[in-house]
Write a structure and sequence with these properties.
InterPro entries: Znf_CCHC. The chain is α+β, with helices and mostly antiparallel strands. Among the domains are: 81 residues, Alpha-Beta Plaits (2-Layer Sandwich); 83 residues, 2-Layer Sandwich (Alpha-Beta Plaits), CATH 3.30.70.330; 39 residues, no CATH class. The chain is elongated, with a radius of gyration of 24 Å. The chain contains nine helices and 19 strands. Strand 17 and strand 18 form a beta hairpin. The strands form six sheets. A five-stranded antiparallel β-sheet has the order 7-8-6-10-9. A five-stranded antiparallel β-sheet has the order 12-13-11-15-14, with helices on one face. It has a three-stranded antiparallel β-sheet with strand order 2-5-4, with no helix packed on it.
Length: 346
């Protein structure tokens, strides 16, 4: 499939910090942010349910005088595995024909499977118990039920008690979501040999690192920004290091959030906070290139640096394992393309 649309190069200096996430600067949508046309144009491969995927990253942009050809190849094994994962990345390849030389770039699509493959009602009625104490690994199901009924629950209000891989983690599904909320809000349940610490099953703790911010910005202001957009801030501290016996602040803030499962995908790579640009590092997430603003490689491996790297995103479950160096060849854009991506050469 081909297109004659004019494509403007995206650079580090003239690109909004939110372009990577909301596609407002995506040339394929004309700046409207509507990705429906993008999906239909890029689905040249096997048929995929239109509602099953959502665009999560922007696309590489080349100079406007370059003709482009887009084709798709889908990973069949990844598609088969979608049924056992809430959100599993799908490897998606775009082939650009630049002056007769194919240029492969890996983009990332996130499967939004919660509404189709997870019973959200059951998830929200479930409580996760972290067990501590001298018998945290040997607590039985009967003891869990006895502890819950002793805290005021009726036996008919407990629908399921089960355990997964962790021996010190138990799950309970209750009759209503209000019961689950009340159990968590009341706090820990203490027994003679163990203590149950309840948590919501549809929420998780996430520790992120916020860089590039000056140290004179108040911690509470930074915490309120993340609390308003992403979740509850439970810890906020500053990263320090020791140099020659002197303890120094590094300007990096370490923030721990309690968010709903899946909301970590909404956290921007870059944001503006009190007029200052901030870089947000999320564990397990592919990096952003500070040169071309694309996801999946770092600036030193950017295709616009004179050396071409075909980068592949490798995933094990939901964890990002790194970039695989495939090969090296001259920059497909050559001298004609130049530093079309703009920004730092890095």
């Amino acid at each position: 499939m081909s297109t004659d649309e004019s494509v403007q190069p995206v650079g580090e200096e003239d690109t909004p910090s939110t372009a990577t996430q909301d596609n407002t600067a995506c040339p394929w949508t004309g700046g409207s942010g509507d990705t429906s046309e993008v999906l239909s144009m890029k689905r040249a491969g096997p048929e995929v349910d239109e509602e099953e995927f959502q665009v999560a990253k922007t696309f590489v942009c080349f100079p406007s005088d370059v003709n482009q050809r887009i084709s798709c190849s889908w990973s069949e094994s990844s598609r088969r595995n979608h049924g056992v994962c809430l959100r599993r990345p799908e490897r998606f390849r775009e082939t650009y024909l630049v002056q007769g030389i194919p240029c492969l770039v890996v983009s990332l699509f996130l499967a939004s499977m919660a509404d189709k493959h997870i019973d959200l009602d059951v998830l929200r009625r479930s409580v996760r118990f972290q067990v501590t104490g001298s018998r945290n690994n040997t607590v039985t199901r009967f003891e869990i039920v006895k502890a819950l009924t002793g805290s005021g629950l009726q036996g008919t209000e407990i629908q399921a008690i089960f355990r997964c891989e962790g021996p010190s983690t138990w799950f309970a599904t209750l009759a209503t979501q209000d019961l689950a909320d009340s159990i968590v809000e009341e706090g820990y349940i203490e027994n003679q040999y163990f203590t149950l610490h309840p948590e919501w099953c549809d929420r998780r703790r996430l520790t992120i690192r916020v860089q590039w911010l000056p140290i004179w910005l108040v911690d509470d202001v930074i915490a309120s920004h993340f609390h308003g957009f992403y979740g509850t801030v439970v810890n906020n501290c500053r990263e320090t290091t020791s140099v020659g016996g002197v303890l120094l602040e590094m300007g990096t803030r370490i923030i721990t959030l309690v968010i709903r499962e899946g909301d970590q995908d909404r956290i921007h790579h870059r944001t503006i906070l009190l007029g200052k640009s901030a870089l947000i590092m999320v564990p397990g997430r592919p990096p952003i290139c500070l040169r071309c603003q694309q996801i999946g490689h770092v600036r030193s491996q950017c295709p616009g640096t004179g050396t071409y790297y075909e980068t592949v995103l490798c995933f094990e479950g939901r964890q990002y394992r790194g970039l695989c160096y495939i090969g090296e060849r001259p920059d497909p854009r050559g001298d004609a393309g130049g530093d079309a991506g703009g920004g730092d050469a890095g």
